[in-house]
Specification:
Layout lengths: L8 H6 L13 H23 L4 H36 L3 H14 L2
Helix pairs in contact: 2-3, 3-4
Length: 109
């Protein structure tokens, strides 16, 4: 980008300028690690089903995977609130707030 076209995230939202959300949050590495562990755990649950484990044991492990995913979602949400939403509110970006509300409705059921 030329220096004339360089703008911060809030400016882009405020002016409806399409942009990539390629920014990095402080907990990105932790989120990636949590997701990798959840994927590994889910693979283990799949193997449990394939090996004919008791359904109760499978359900307990599925609950653990779901809890891990929910906790990962909380980390993502907190990062989003601390960074993206602070910028959006400062810029008066109501669309970003609506997008977050829609995402929360889908995440929290």
């Amino acid at each position: 980008m030329s220096e004339h076209h360089e703008h911060d995230h809030a400016y882009l939202h405020a002016h409806g300028i399409s942009h990539s959300h390629g920014h990095v949050h402080e907990n990105q590495k932790a989120v990636i690690n949590r997701l990798a562990r959840a994927i590994g755990h889910l693979e283990k649950v799949k193997r449990m089903v394939e090996e004919g484990y008791d359904c109760s044991e499978v359900l307990v492990q599925l609950a653990a995977v779901r809890s891990a995913l929910d906790n990962t979602g909380k980390v993502i949400l907190k990062d989003h609130m601390r960074h993206c939403m602070v910028d959006a509110v400062a810029a008066g970006d109501h669309e970003a707030i609506d997008d977050l509300c829609d995402a929360m409705d889908k995440f929290i059921k």
